[in-house]
Design goal:
The chain is of the alpha+beta class. The chain is built from 28 helices and 44 strands. The protein starts with a strand and ends with a helix.
Length: 1135
């Protein structure tokens, strides 16, 4: 007996299930499956029925269960059209089995019984779930186990911050899964429905790339999502999910590009020209659970100010196509609000407008409690701002805005720019605000994470009549360990300072970010390595403290516990792949093992399973049940792959110019007290220094850096230097050919001949071919092309005629490009044919950018060579094709005469590359080179801040040295800068700070020369000096190392002394004393002994009556010196 199969058709013809007798080919019985099907379309419309218009073809499955002794006869389980299950016994009618809300929500396409079991069978449905049942009788069916699965990769994860809702997962097949995670596998499998599937755009929807829950408890069930096709919508998860086979409503506006972020935010903008939609309300009409329409409330206000009491408090904001959009209703197109944000000071409007937006994040402050120095400051922040907005850019910068709350501070723009963070140089992928502090974590296309403390910026912004905007290039923590770009970040809502990250390296990591109070720095706590491909999303559970989720592109959504992981740090790999799990071999004769094993391809794995399978100890033992002894398994034998015939004979052509923009090694910057200034520049900064010396003083570049000349505009030195460089490269290839006996040696000889042909030395090429007996066909033809003057080789093909001339060189290049592409040979043939411009374009199109740049410099005229040079240099910088010359863009800007822009680019690059610890010497070198670049500008006010940065970096390095060496170091630094009336403010700031550092070092060494002298021949106005030094305090984060803390103390102490002794009372500020107090507290926590010694000596010598009372109060509140302080001071410094 067999069943007849009902296969999918464009439209159903019948819904019958039949039983056939094979021997007689006769239908024994048939039954009709209940349920209504789609009506047959008319003949005129049947041809227009497309896959997207259909609601899904019917598929009926059936399974004949083995007969049971207590229930003999026919036991057949049949599926319905919507996931129902029926039983077909001896009667002619189907009897529906009651699944008690445990059944499938969509079509069941497979039913299979498990052999050698008592009525066990499982069903597989279109809702991505596998359910195990036990069949007792035609009316008795018991649910046993549910295994939810995933059919595509996970692109986004989200859970409500209130901790009541499920985990939402955006899947690449267009579905959204809601997973109500349970504490154990048994509890999860026995729950009614742990996973609910939503298909908001149908079964053919695009990948869901962004998710965001509503921030209000009242509307906690609202979930916003964005897709890869550019659709942004809203679903209500409290309603019954729409079936995947039902058609979704038409989206009136689709971006057509990937939506990278959706976020809920407050009303930010009003439109004075139009009656702006103020709020968006959820429609109550859609009963299928997909909120595809919204009601909008329009409010007219003659004063063009937002309503004080809006009915709803949140919009949906999305990031797509490099812009930020605000969605005001389903029936309205989204509003482009990218340029409605105020531009930040210090950045050109053109750069700000053209920079692509990549992310946006909101932080509501009204009901949050975050840690700052005092509760009063926290109240001031919340009274001033209701929300913080962060915007990430493709350039790596992040802007932080504050939504002004108090009416007296509100201006024409309610959004106030607070700071710009420049700690990265690649596109921002994710921004995450901490739950307990004003910490912002930033993840970009770079492999490290930075954490910024914005609390001090907010405290400064709450003060009236102060300039609150800051440029921040420092950080609280620099988390390095991942091998690839960062894709997602999430803070723990349960424990302070725990940060979860996901990366393209295939791992998820937990970091502990330390506050400045702690002695230990930020470290890695746990690393999860069960994924096999790239990770796109991670999430910290809002319900359990020791539970995290992660998902990637390999159809897995893992839940795992960080405290149970074996690995503590990320692997040192760009693409980590976990080793295969060793499986115990199963004896087929062992009857205790079931013969059928259910193993879905993509199962939602719980933490217990991951903790068991992620780490496998060595060796693995297999227990023989018959003997009871443990026998170690034999190690797996690696299969030996045989090479294809001729695969080893293939020769790889070497680089034509291996030394162009390439360095064998890069020397770091080091401290050297025998120099003035007391350090040696590293290789990277020497390159910039040499080019700067060439442009300013016309000093030739050293031989090792002569290739940097080809990144600069054309001069009378460029062409001779290029000829010399190419000649040396040709000599290198000839030496390599004569030194090697490998088959690749002939490739070096070919490269030697190619360079000579580019240089026009055809006779030397012919002589080499004869002497070395190396005459390939292409080389013979190239020599002939270079020596002949027949125009047929370079003429274009005529459109008609019997004697049309044929472009042999062009046809040969096309043939070589399509069949066996050899870019260098093809371009050389074009060069020998006199078609230099085509050769350069061909090299550039084939991504041989360096060769295209050199050939354009060598063979083309200045006009066209300049344009192709700009394109080549731009691609070299964009794709980072010269890692040993990291400041290629800086050199290019210097050559163009953009001194200020070159300094900005250099500063931004060094902030990112030198943000790790133990890079202070490189930071001093960078500050020195930046200062020299700005000294070349015509504007004498530009180097002022560069002098201060150079002085502060010198202080950090000096305080790291032993006390005796630090004194010499500060003296050498002072000798490097001479006083100048033109640059008076900058040089005076530098001398004052170095003088303070010198006195600090003298105190720590026990020297008697400990008093600070402010009357040291200052050339600038004291008010300008104090203002410049105060500006330097804006860009710094809390430090936990003595050298950084001491440098901040030196800066704050210098500012306080200058303002207290040299400024008028109306120009003094209490903030100077507050900063000094904060610096003293920080230094006393890091190194109390040195701080006590510094404070005793310094405050003892300040005898001014105006300073006596504040300093004594500062001593008593911060350091609490002992009663015999005066005796100790007298012993150290007599008299």
């Amino acid at each position: 007996m067999i069943f007849s199969a009902l296969t999918p058709t464009p439209y159903p013809l019948n819904l019958h299930r039949q039983i056939w007798n094979i021997a007689s080919s006769w239908c024994c019985d048939s039954v009709r499956v209940p349920g209504s099907a789609r009506s047959i379309p008319k003949e005129a419309d049947s041809s227009n029925l497309t896959k997207n218009q259909s609601t899904g073809a019917p598929w009926i499955s059936a399974c004949w269960l083995p007969a049971k002794t207590d229930n003999p006869g026919r036991n057949i389980v049949v599926s319905g059209l919507r996931g129902e299950l029926y039983t077909w016994s001896d009667s002619s009618q189907l009897v529906r089995l009651h699944t008690e809300n445990h059944g499938h929500s969509m079509l069941v396409f497979a039913i299979r019984s498990i052999p050698d079991t008592d009525g066990l069978f499982f069903t597989i449905g279109q809702d991505r779930q596998v359910i195990l049942w036990i069949y007792h009788c035609p009316t008795d069916l018991t649910f046993m186990l549910r295994v939810p699965t995933i059919a595509a990769g996970i692109s986004a994860l989200a859970q409500s911050d209130h901790g009541h809702g499920p985990v939402a997962a955006g899947v690449a097949d267009g579905s959204i899964l809601l997973w109500r995670h349970c504490s154990s596998l048994q509890e999860e499998s026995s729950s009614m429905n742990p996973v609910t599937s939503y298909w908001p755009r149908g079964v053919h929807g695009s990948c869901v790339t962004a998710l965001a829950w509503h921030p209000s408890v009242r509307h906690e069930s609202l979930l916003a999502y964005g897709t890869e096709s550019g659709c942004v919508e809203l679903i209500d998860t409290s309603k019954i999910p729409k079936s995947a086979t039902q058609r979704s409503k038409t989206q009136p506006y689709i971006f057509g590009s990937t939506v990278y972020r959706v976020a809920w935010g407050p009303p930010l903008f009003t439109d004075s020209g139009k009656d702006q939609v103020v709020e968006t309300a959820v429609s109550e009409q859609d009963a299928n659970g997909s909120t595809d329409s919204t009601d909008t409330v329009e409010q007219k206000d003659p004063t063009n100010k937002p309503s004080s009491a809006p009915k709803f408090s949140s919009y949906i904001y999305s990031v797509c196509k490099g812009k930020i959009f605000c969605h005001v209703g389903f029936q309205r197109p989204p509003l482009d609000v990218t340029l409605k944000f105020p531009s930040v000071p210090g950045i050109s409007t053109e750069d700000w407008v053209n920079d692509k937006r990549t992310d946006i994040a909101f932080l509501y402050l009204e009901n949050s409690t975050r840690s700052v120095d005092s509760p009063s400051e926290e109240n001031e922040i919340r009274e001033c701002f209701s929300c913080l907005i962060t915007v990430g850019y493709r350039s790596g910068s992040v802007d932080v805005y504050g939504l002004v709350k108090s009416k007296e501070r509100a201006s024409a723009d309610l959004i106030q720019p607070l700071c710009r963070i420049s700690c990265h140089t690649k596109g921002v992928n994710c921004l995450a605000w901490s739950f307990d502090r004003y910490w912002l974590a930033i993840g970009t296309n770079e492999s490290f994470i930075t954490v910024i403390d914005v609390g001090h910026v907010l405290k400064q912004a709450t003060k009236p009549n102060t300039s609150s905007f800051r440029q921040i290039s420092t950080h609280l923590a620099h988390l390095e360990g991942h091998g690839n770009r960062i894709t997602c970040l999430d803070w723990s809502p349960h424990e302070n300072g725990l940060l979860l990250s996901a990366s393209f390296d295939g791992t998820a990591n937990v970091w502990r970010v330390a506050h400045n109070d702690t002695d230990s720095g930020s470290t890695s706590v746990a690393n999860f390595r069960a994924h096999r491909l790239r990770l796109f999303a991670c999430l910290w559970s809002r319900q359990e403290a020791d539970l995290a989720f992660s998902g990637g592109e390999l159809c897995h959504l893992f839940s795992w516990r960080p405290s149970k992981l074996a690995h503590k740090e990320p692997p040192n790999s760009r693409r980590y792949r976990p080793p295969p799990v060793k499986r115990v071999p199963i004896d087929s004769k062992d009857l205790s093992v079931p013969s059928v094993i259910l193993e879905p391809s993509a199962i939602v794995v719980t933490s217990q399973e991951v903790n068991r399978t992620e780490y496998v100890p060595e060796p693995t033992y297999h227990t023989d049940t018959s003997i009871g002894t443990s026998v170690p398994l034999e190690p797996p034998v690696r299969s030996v792959t045989t090479k294809k015939p001729g695969s080893g004979d293939k020769r790889k052509r070497p680089s034509l110019c291996p030394h162009f923009l390439h360095r064998s090694s890069l020397e770091p910057s080091t401290t050297d007290l025998g120099f003035c200034p007391p350090f040696r520049l590293g290789s990277r900064f020497l390159q910039v220094s040499h080019v700067l010396n060439l442009l300013k003083n016309d000093v030739d570049l050293p031989e090792s850096d002569c290739d940097l000349l080809f990144l600069l505009p054309e001069t009378n030195k460029t062409r001779p230097a290029l000829v010399r460089f190419l000649t040396s490269e040709a000599t290198h290839h000839l030496s390599a050919y004569r030194a090697t006996q490998r088959s690749n040696g002939l490739m070096h000889l070919d490269a030697y001949c190619i360079i000579l042909l580019w240089l026009g030395r055809t006779p030397l090429v012919a002589q080499t071919m004869c002497s070395e007996k190396h005459m390939p066909f292409w080389l013979l033809w190239a020599v002939q092309l270079a020596q002949t003057t027949v125009p047929a080789f370079s003429a274009s093909r005529k459109s008609s005629g019997d004697h049309a001339e044929i472009d042999l060189a062009g046809e040969k290049v096309k043939d070589m490009t399509s069949n066996s592409p050899d870019v260098l040979v093809s371009s050389t043939l074009l060069v020998c044919a006199g078609r230099h411009q085509e050769a350069v374009d061909y090299l550039f199109a084939q991504d041989r950018v360096k060769e295209a740049l050199l050939l354009a410099r060598l063979r083309l005229g200045p006009l066209y060579a300049n344009s192709i040079m700009q394109k080549c240099i731009a691609r070299i910088i964009e794709r980072r094709l010269c890692p040993e010359v990291p400041f290629a863009r800086v050199l290019h800007e210097l050559g163009a005469g953009e001194w200020e822009r070159a300094q900005t680019v250099l500063r931004q690059a060094t902030v990112v590359s030198l943000s790790r610890q133990d890079m202070e010497d490189e930071q001093v070198a960078s500050s020195w080179v930046e200062l020299n670049i700005l000294l070349s500008c015509s504007d004498n006010s530009l180097p002022t801040n560069a002098f201060v940065r150079f002085a502060l970096s010198c202080l950090v390095v000096g305080f790291q040295l032993p006390e005796a060496q630090s004194v010499i170091y500060f003296q050498r630094c002072q000798e490097a800068v001479t006083p100048s009336a033109v640059l008076a403010t900058g040089t005076d700031c530098f001398r004052l700070l170095l003088n303070t550092g010198l006195r600090f070092a003298a105190i720590l060494t026990g020297s008697s020369q400990s008093e600070l002298y402010l009357d040291m021949g200052l050339h600038a106005d004291v008010a300008d000096i104090v203002q410049c030094l105060r500006y330097a305090t804006l860009d710094r984060q809390p430090a936990n190392r003595w050298s950084a803390c001491a440098s901040q103390l030196a800066l704050d102490f210098t500012i306080y002394l200058l303002s207290s002794e040299k400024l008028a009372p109306q120009d003094q500020s209490t903030e100077d004393l507050n900063r000094l107090e904060a610096s003293l507290r920080l230094c006393s926590k890091v190194n109390p002994t040195n701080t006590q010694q510094l404070s005793d000596i310094l405050f003892h010598f300040q005898t001014s009556p105006e300073l006596d009372s504040p300093l004594k109060r500062l001593l008593s509140t911060v350091l609490r010196p002992s009663e015999n302080t005066d005796e100790q001071v007298g012993d150290i410094c007599p008299g």
